[in-house]
Amino acid sequence: MLYREAGDFKTTYAADGQTFPIAFDRWRYYGVLAVAFGVVPFLINDYWANAVFVPFLIYAIAAIGLNILTGYCGQVSLGTGGFMAVGAYACYKLMTAFPEVSILVHIVLAGGITAGVGLLFGIPSLRIKGFYLAVATLAAQFFLVWLFNKVPWFYNYSASGQISAPERTFLGVAVTGAATPAWAKYLVCLVFVVALAWVARNLTRGALGRQWMAIRDMDIAAEIIGVNPLRAKLAAFAISSFYVGIAGALLFAVYLGAVEVGEAFGINKAFLVLFMIIIGGLGSIFGSFAGAAFLVLLPVLLKNVLVGGLGWSTSLAAHIELMIVGALIVLFLIVEPHGLAQLWRLAKEKLRLWPFPH
Amino acid sequence: MSDQLLFAMEVTLNGLMAGVMYALVALGFVLIFKASGIFNFAQGVMALFAALTLVGFQTGQVPFAHLINAVFGTRIHHFGWSVPTLAAIVATMAVMVLMALLVERLVLKHFVNQAPIILFMATIGLAYFLEGLGDVMWGADIKRLDVGLPQGISETIDGTTFGWFGYGFFIDRLDIVAALVAAALVVSLTLFSQYTRQGRALRAVADDHQAALSVGISLRAIWVLVWSIAGFVALVAGMMWGTKLGVQFSLSLIALKALPVLMLGGFTSIPGAIVGGLIVGVGEKLFEFAVGPMIGGATENWFAYMLALVFLLFRPQGLFGERIIERV
Amino acid sequence: MTGQVQPAAAEAAGGDRRIGPVVMEMKNITLRFGGVTAIRDISFDIREGEIRAIIGPNGAGKSSMLNVISGFYRPQEGEVWFRGQRRPRLKPYQVARQGIARTFQNIALFEGMSVLDNIMTGRLTLMRSTILDQALWWGRAEREEVAHREKVEKIIDFLEIQHVRKTPVGRLPYGLKKRVELARALAAEPRILLLDEPMAGMNVEEKEDMCRFVLDVNDEFGTTIVLIEHDMGVVMDLSDRVVVMDYGRKIADGPPAEVRRDQAVIDAYLGVPHDG
Question: What pTM was computed for the model?
Answer without folding.
Answer: 0.89
